[in-house]
Specification:
Shape: elongated
Strand content: under 5%
Structural class: mainly alpha
Largest sheet: none
Number of strands: 0
CATH topology of the largest domain: 434 Repressor (Amino-terminal Domain)
Helix content: 55-70%
Order of helices and strands: HHHHHHH
Number of helices: 7
Oligomer: single chain
C-alpha cells in the first residue's frame, strides 16, 4: 500500500484493514513503521471528517448522575439548594466556577465539558 493522505472513506477503510493486518508488528520492523504511519493518517482523517463535539454541560451532568444512580436531591451539596439544582438542570441558571470545580473533582466530569 502506498502511504499518502487519506482522502475518502474507501481509503480510510483500506487503511483500517491494513492496520488490523499489521497489528502485531514488532517494534523496529518495517511493518511497525508502516502501522505507526497508518495510524497517524487515520487519526488525521478522523479528526477532519468525524469530529466529536464536546457534550453539553447539563447533559454531561445528567449522564453522570444516571451512571451513579443519583437523584436531583443528591446534587444539593454541589449546587447549594434544591431550587438551584432544578434551575441548573433546567438550564435556567448557569454553572458557577465553584460548581464546575466540585463536579469535576467529585464526579470526574472533564472541566472542558462543564465549561461548554
Amino acid at each position: 500500500m502506498t502511504n499518502s493522505l487519506i482522502k475518502n472513506d474507501a481509503q480510510y477503510e483500506s487503511a483500517l484493514n491494513r492496520i488490523d493486518e499489521l497489528f502485531d508488528a514488532k517494534p523496529g520492523s518495517k511493518e511497525f513503521d508502516e502501522v505507526e504511519l497508518l495510524m497517524l493518517l487515520v487519526k488525521h482523517y478522523e479528526e477532519e471528517n468525524y469530529k466529536i463535539e464536546a457534550p453539553d454541560p447539563i447533559e454531561a451532568i445528567k449522564f453522570r448522575m444516571e451512571q451513579m444512580g443519583l437523584k436531583k436531591t443528591d446534587m444539593t451539596p454541589y449546587f447549594g439548594t434544591r431550587a438551584r439544582v432544578s434551575e441548573v438542570l433546567n438550564r435556567q441558571r448557569n454553572l458557577s466556577i465553584r460548581m464546575i470545580r466540585r463536579l469535576h473533582k467529585d464526579f470526574g466530569i472533564p472541566a472542558e465539558s462543564l465549561i461548554g
